[in-house]
Specification:
By secondary structure, the chain is an alpha/beta fold. Helix content is 37%, strand content 29%. A hairpin with a 2-residue loop joins strand 1 and strand 2. Helix 1 packs parallel to helix 2.
Length: 122
Amino acid sequence: MDRGTVGSANRGRLQVEVRTEGRSEVVCPAGELDHHTAELLSAPLDDAIERGRVRLVIDCSQLEFCDSTGLNVLLGARLKAEAGGGGVHLAGMLPVVARVFEITGADAVFTVHDSLEAALAD
């Protein structure tokens, strides 16, 4: 689902697809997650949680960049999902994105998997 980039000159820098696989809501952001595009990810995450889909698997294999705003979106989703009895699982992070999580210590608060398949099997 490509929602475009509202209020930004950087249209199309992030596309987000969402699908249900078993007990998981799989969210696939592709492109750059930053302050211009964060709403494109936060909206479907919030929607999933509101619908009771609180086991969120974020397939990061196509996420090329993530700044602090993007990190905050994921941290916020984690808190909401955990409050509902679920959690956020990150899968297939590219090294450049994994480094952001490592530097900030955020990798310690998420369940991180090497691949989407591993996240879905957990």
